[in-house]
Amino acid sequence: MTRVLFALALFALAFVTGPRAHAQSTTDPAAALRGMDVVSYFKAGGPVPGVAEHRHDFDGARYLFSSAQNKAAFVADPDRWLPQFSGLCATGVALGKEFKGDPGTWKIVDGKLYLYHSAPVRAKGDGDPNTLAIAHQKWAARK
Predict the structure, then answer these.
(1) Which residue, 9, 64, 74, 88, has fewest beta-carbon neighbours within 10 Å?
(2) CA 72 – CA 54 distance, rounded (Å)
(3) How far apart are CA 108 and CA 75, in angstroms?
């Protein structure tokens, strides 16, 4: 009788933990840019939040868009819209550091989106006209 109860307990444990383990391995990707619509950075008025209805998973991240048109533009040419340096802080990359970029602290230069860790860090980078060129050189050397 004890063996039967023990076997039933093991079966119940396997049944209860099995689906949970599977669910953990199929989680949704994290929202890129804290859910901001990456295409909207390039439009008048600046970035706006995206919505789950217009989402697209790309390169391990989930991108949310404010409209079907913005989603279609991204899907057609992701490299045109993606932040430089995989979304890391441009000034940080120039300094050889890896600071996360803040989607609220950004600028567009020559049609490219750059994120910065914070406003003071952006100001530091903006103070040197060579910051972005140095960042691109260091980024290229990483690959």
Answers:
(1) 9
(2) 9
(3) 20
Do the Cβ atoms of 58 and 69 come closer than 8 Å? Answer: no
Go through the chain and tell me how many residues it has: 143
* Tokens read off for 72: 């279609």
The pLDDT tens digits of the residues spanning 27-59 come to: 889 999 999 999 999 999 999 999 999 999 999
63-104 pLDDT, tens digit each: 999 999 999 999 999 999 999 999 999 999 999 999 999 999
The secondary structure of residue 75, as a DSSP letter, is: H
Cα–Cα distance measured from residue 8 to residue 11, given in angstroms and rounded to the nearest whole number: 5
For residues 37-49, one letter each, b for 16 or more C-beta atoms within 10 angstroms of the residue's C-beta and e for the rest, the string is: bbbbbbeeeebbe
Q: Which amino acid, residue 104?
A: G
Q: How far apart are CA 19 and CA 45, in angstroms?
A: 45
Pair 31, 64: CB distance under 8 Å: yes
25 exposure class (CB count in 10 Å sphere: 0-12, 13-18, 19+): exposed
Which residue bears the tokens 């008025």?
45
Residue appearing with tokens 């706006």: 48
